[in-house]
Write a structure and sequence with these properties.
163 residues, alpha+beta, four-stranded antiparallel beta sheet, two-stranded antiparallel ribbon, 31% helix, 25% strand, globular, disordered N terminus
Length: 163
């Protein structure tokens, strides 16, 4: 049985569309994400205050992952956490790294951890979403009610082994 050319072209086009399941088929790759930013500053205390305020205004949890300012890396987990995870101290794992999961909570991140970002900034992040217009539009609509100046920036996060 021969399939019409139109069917073959449509099938090929559908197979080429990215899907969440297809992204999970590959491992040890950079996965594109849109990161929603509420604030950026070189002052950690200002970023932390902004993150606490955002958590309250957006009714989202504040998750700092135990990170604190660090002169060498910008942010770092504690020495015990770094050692426990098999890293040397200081260590910093940017949001989404390892599992590349979408997330909807407030955090303070360090810009050096993200591809394409200006270096040396603490950023207050409200979400990490897949690079799909509908997902980003829905997230931005909710966030911009409280933070009209919020913006999204495309980056890539590591999906794979961390050691």
């Amino acid at each position: 049985m021969r399939f019409p050319a139109v069917f073959c072209v449509l099938s090929a086009a559908l197979l080429a569309l990215p899907t969440p399941a297809a992204a999970q088929d590959e491992y040890n790759i950079n996965v594109p994400k849109d990161i929603v930013i509420l604030q950026s500053t070189r002052d950690y205390a200002a970023a932390l205050a902004g993150a606490k305020q955002a958590a309250a205004r957006l009714h989202r949890p504040l998750q700092l992952a135990g990170n604190r300012p660090n002169k060498a890396l910008g942010l770092s987990a504690s020495q015990a956490a770094c050692d426990g995870d098999g890293y040397g101290y200081p260590c910093y794992t940017p949001r989404g790294t390892g599992d590349a999961q979408d997330s909807d909570y407030i955090s303070v991140e360090f810009s050096n951890g993200y591809q394409g970002f200006a270096k040396g900034y603490y950023i207050v992040v409200a979400a990490l979403v897949p690079p799909r217009p509908a997902a980003l539009r829905q997230t931005m609509a909710r966030i911009r009610r409280a933070y009209p100046a919020a913006y999204a920036k495309r980056t890539a996060v590591w999906f794979g082994c961390m050691h």
